[in-house]
């Protein structure tokens, strides 16, 4: 007996990272020493005070019941305090913050809320592949905004045809950018707000790597810019800032009507997040800023160690301004998929092929700084030997 699959599911793209994960697992199971730098999964443990807060909350029978549909008020208050303290942004905890079951969930929900067949969603290219998931579910069309070294990794908004602006309803923006590690400026956000206001487009700023900026770059929040809350929201995940990827906690902040609509769809999907995890998330957001700075410094040391080893071998690559990724250009004409496959097979280093992030990602691979410095240096040395044999 077979059952017809709904078209909205048939339209879904293949999950980009699932195939990479399977390939890496197969080499590991075969006994190879694989250095896996292909995913965005933090390798460091969640800070102990957050884990202790979870343990205490689990022991409280009050957390064993259904939590409020729209999240614990104290978690929304903690998120608002975090934004006020970190970015100087004032948020109403009840009207301007929605608790999410991970940032990815919010990115998909926004597409389901605001896109119809025939609509357009603007996406960065290269960009996070899962922006396309919600767009496909809604039956809408993605329109790629090229972000490359030639334009400073910020799209040329004047090059977007007027006909596209007229059909655009949602615009995904992401800085620090995954996969390129590029940062942005307040001036770009100001221009984006102007365009969104002119064309009635909802901006969704994916601020997953907001805590990770290098050298003199401190990633700005979209919500710091005047007028941002009138045209959009920002999605902030605890996954990267607090090494809580497996905990699945994030929040959306900004435009109150959009926040209400997110809450409405989640009323039907979930009964929020386990209350003990929410209490631990309060401990994270109210915890010491020193922990966040120590994490940022760890990634900066890793970045410098990895790129230093590559450059010592004669391979040039730009230094990212943020995120925990390096974006490595390949020799002209080299397929990123073929390069990544061969590097895994011959050097047992896993990286993500740039083509998986969009057409303009071709010719690059993404390296996650998600291993200790000595392993990153070893990965760079393996890459360099592989590079010398091939090119």
Q: What does the model show?
A:
The chain is an alpha/beta fold. The chain is 44% helix and 14% strand. The chain has helices spanning 7-10, 16-29, 48-58, 73-87, 103-114, 131-138, 162-167, 186-199, 228-231, 238-241, 256-269, 275-285, 289-312, 336-347, 373-390, and strands spanning 35-36, 97-100, 120-125, 141-146, 168-173, 202-206, 232-237, 250-254, 325-329, 349-350, 352-353, 364-368. Strands 2-8-7-6-5-3-4 form a seven-stranded mixed beta sheet, sandwiched between helices. A three-stranded antiparallel beta sheet has the order 9-12-11. Strands 1-10 form a two-stranded parallel sheet. Helix 3 packs antiparallel against helix 12 (275-285), helix 4 (73-87) packs parallel to helix 12 and helix 13 (289-312) runs parallel beside helix 15 (373-390). The radius of gyration is 21 Å and the shape is globular. The termini are far apart.
Gross morphology is globular
Strands of the widest sheet, in order across it, are: 2-8-7-6-5-3-4
Integer-rounded radius of gyration = 21 Å
What would you call the structural class? alpha/beta
Say how many strands there are.
12
Poorly predicted ranges (pLDDT <50, ≥5 residues)? none
Mean pLDDT: 95
Largest sheet: 7 strands, mixed
Topology as a string of helices (H) and strands (E): HHEHHEHEHEHEHEHEHEHHHEHEEEH
Helix content class: 40-55%
Calculate the terminal CA-CA distance, rounded to whole Å. Answer: 53 Å
Beta content comes to: 5-15%
**What is the overall number of helices?**
15
List keywords for this structure.
391 residues, alpha/beta, 3-stranded antiparallel sheet, 15 helices, 44% helix
């Amino acid at each position: 007996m077979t059952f017809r699959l709904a078209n909205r599911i048939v339209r879904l793209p293949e999950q980009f990272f699932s195939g990479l994960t399977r390939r890496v697992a197969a080499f590991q199971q075969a006994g190879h020493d694989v250095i896996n730098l292909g995913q965005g999964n933090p390798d460091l443990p969640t800070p102990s005070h957050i884990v202790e807060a979870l343990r205490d909350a689990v022991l409280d029978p009050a957390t064993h019941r259904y939590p409020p549909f729209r999240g614990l008020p104290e978690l929304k208050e903690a998120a608002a305090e975090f934004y006020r303290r970190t970015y100087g942004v004032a948020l109403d905890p009840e009207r301007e913050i929605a608790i999410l079951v991970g940032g990815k969930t919010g990115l998909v929900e926004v597409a389901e809320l605001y896109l119809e067949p025939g609509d357009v969603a603007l996406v960065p290219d290269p960009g996070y592949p899962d922006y396309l998931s919600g767009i496909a579910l809604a039956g809408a069309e993605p329109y790629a905004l090229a972000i490359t070294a030639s334009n400073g990794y910020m799209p040329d908004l004047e090059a977007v045809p007027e006909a596209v602006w007229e059909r655009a309803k949602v615009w995904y923006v992401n800085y620090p950018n995954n996969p390129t590690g590029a940062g942005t400026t307040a001036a770009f956000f100001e221009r984006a707000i102007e365009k969104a206001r002119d064309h009635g487009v909802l901006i969704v700023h994916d601020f997953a790597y907001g805590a990770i900026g290098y050298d003199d770059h401190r990633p700005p929040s979209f919500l710091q810019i005047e007028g941002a809350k009138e045209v959009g929201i920002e999605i902030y995940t605890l996954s990267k800032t607090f090494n809580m990827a497996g905990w699945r906690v994030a929040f959306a902040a900004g435009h109150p009507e959009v926040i209400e609509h997110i809450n409405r769809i989640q009323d039907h999907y979930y009964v929020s997040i386990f209350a003990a995890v929410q209490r631990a998330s309060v401990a994270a957001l109210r915890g010491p800023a020193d922990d966040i700075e120590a994490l940022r410094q760890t990634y900066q040391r890793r970045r410098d160690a990895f790129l230093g080893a590559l450059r010592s071998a004669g391979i040039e690559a730009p230094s990212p301004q943020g995120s925990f990724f390096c974006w490595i250009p390949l020799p002209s004409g080299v397929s990123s998929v073929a390069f990544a496959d061969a590097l895994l097979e011959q050097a047992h280093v896993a990286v993500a092929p740039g083509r998986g992030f969009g057409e303009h990602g071709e010719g690059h691979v993404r390296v996650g700084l998600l291993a200790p410095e000595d392993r990153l240096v070893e990965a760079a040395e393996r890459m360099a030997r592989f590079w010398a044999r091939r090119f």
